[in-house]
Amino acid sequence: ADRKFRDAPLALGDLHQQLGELERARDDYQQAMKAVEGDQGTYSLVLDRLAVNALSRGDAGEAQRAQQGSLRILRHIGDKHGQAVALQTLGGISARLGDRTAAELSFREALSLARRLEDQRLTADLLVGLADLEIQRGARREAARNVEEALTIQKAVGDARGQIAALQLRARLHRQAGK
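RESULT FIELD:
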């Protein structure tokens, strides 16, 4: 019963986030941070949710700070998969803030972890994210290689949504090449 009470603000935050009640969700997540203090794994999860909430509210700077806090905790507790996902999110936030260098570094570190963990879906998602950044900086050869590797993985694991994203990038590459 104690855990249910402790996790209630997090569940309420998730509900309010899904309903689009972003300010209420943020308040719930801030309450959740107080309720889960001492449980680093759950605290990291709440920071991740705050980052998503901040992005939804258009505050990429707040999202970045929350996600960096989550990543610090995940590194401290040794959660490699959590680190890879947090780095992926941080890469997306950095790209949104216009810092492609930081985004690429985050994606590459996440990709290294995802490969070591043999998480195929995450690996493919990260390859697509990297390819998008590479297209933006004009590195079409690297982007094409990453798109093709992502498509191979996505087909193998049955990730239709991922394939759509990769195929859209492939189409961008073809348009840029004049094909």
